[in-house]
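Task: complex structure prediction.
Instruction: return structure tokens for all chains below.
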Amino acid sequence: MTDVSGLTIGILGGTGDQGKGLARRFALAGLKVLIGSRSAGRAQEAADSLGAGAGAGAGVVGAENAVVAAEADLVIVAVPYDGHKTLLESLAPQLAGKIVVDCVNPLGFDKKGAYALAVEEGSAAQQAAAVLPDSRVVAAFHHVSAVVLLDPAVEKVDLDVLVLGEDREATDTVQALAGLIPGVRGVYGGRLRNAFQVEALTANIISVNRRYKAHAGIRITDI
Amino acid sequence: MTDVSGLTIGILGGTGDQGKGLARRFALAGLKVLIGSRSAGRAQEAADSLGAGAGAGAGVVGAENAVVAAEADLVIVAVPYDGHKTLLESLAPQLAGKIVVDCVNPLGFDKKGAYALAVEEGSAAQQAAAVLPDSRVVAAFHHVSAVVLLDPAVEKVDLDVLVLGEDREATDTVQALAGLIPGVRGVYGGRLRNAFQVEALTANIISVNRRYKAHAGIRITDI
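Output:
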């Protein structure tokens, strides 16, 4: 399996729960993590909160998104879908040549729950690939529960992370990265043209969570 | 859990592998199963093949799709996507008032593998609901492996069946039906507007099968 132990991981939108949860788990695994935000101050607050509250602070630093994009070896995009395209367009030079892991779920919400939003490019991941032609875009980490990632009582996370992309070395790297979270397997899940349904499945998982009062994830059987 | 032991299950397109596999498992669970096809002769051949080859023949009978739709209590739609809409339109009178379980995956295939087809109504299940306004349409059984269902060596199937629909009694019934297959759980997976991604996820499962040489399925964790 690919060695990812020396990587510095940047997380754009790392002050949100999903980004912060991933930051915590990667820092616990010994990686250096850079939390990005529009505001360097809020990014540093999020980094500090992981140190104080969750025992993962030493390796976590906060900075503006552009600084994080420039300094990290591999960049995770955990921003809200609204603003996703604009942010990535603005960071294309910093992200060139890097693996960019999109974990954005384009969802709408109404009284009946969550539903998938149509995306002109096909999916958030394909939108990232379209605006970052010089990056290696991978889709992954869509179904992680931020609550579970942030919960110090949860040592092992019961989840397979589907990893999609066109570039075998890049998907192998992200599978290995997912595997650093105890309990998690990174599983190759196909090409980016099949990313929409993986992103959209988060709406179904939210329905499961409501019906069963759970923090559901998925596992792939027979592998 | 809903009692489904007295139901007669009809399977439209039951001569295909997916339909035949489900027929086998429901017959083994003691249900009466009607296999439907355009040709009554081919339907009866499929029914006979289950009896001779797989020990499940006593409760399986073949007939034309229209006869099956009329006589069954609950009807599973396991036809190819091509022709799906036309067939259901033609059977709307026979299917009125019944639970109709759509397990059709609208997929295309090319050199790069499988991909999801766009469906005007949103998904195959929503297309069924549109042409069957007097039926109770449920989406389920998308990710079953026909090979596994038909394999006498596989006693327990390692799979959760996501069950989607608008009608609680109908989804409860189909969850119970899924639960008749040893190892399988029927899990509520949301409303029909979120069916597209469940159907389309079959393309990802095909990618998993190719990469890992598996007959992959999914499990939902934390429930």
